[in-house]
Design a protein that fits this description.
Length: about 110
């Protein structure tokens, strides 16, 4: 194993860090002056929520990779089960919702033999 093979990965990691670190610091500096109830921040939250919803919908209806081995009803069932766990999860609702959806999907794939 030569070290030469790792340089592209080091470059990607450093370039990725440099490209995003500026925006993190800018967010910290500007974020202190933004009112949490402002219309701008409400719009940003709405756009972020819409983007997450779009990615999840794409994963459900147009899966790639391992998810292509699962039927649509199983993917929808996993989302519904995870959402129920999230809403009834109490203090650890995010972790519980994700874990429940993953367990449901894994159990369904195991039962189907996929």
């Amino acid at each position: 194993m030569s070290f030469e093979g790792y340089w592209p990965y080091v470059y990607i990691a450093v370039a990725g860090w440099l490209a995003t670190d500026f925006w993190r610091w800018a967010g910290v500096l500007v974020g202190n002056r933004i009112d949490e109830r402002s219309e701008l921040l409400n719009w940003v939250r709405a756009v972020a929520t819409a983007l997450v919803a779009a990615v999840i919908a794409k994963m459900i209806f147009f899966p790639t990779g391992t998810l292509t081995n699962s039927p649509l009803w199983l993917r929808l069932g996993a989302v519904a089960f995870g959402a129920a766990a999230f809403f009834f999860g109490g203090r650890f609702r995010q972790i519980l919702g994700i874990a429940a959806a993953m367990a449901f999907l894994a159990a369904g794939l195991a039962l189907l033999g996929a």
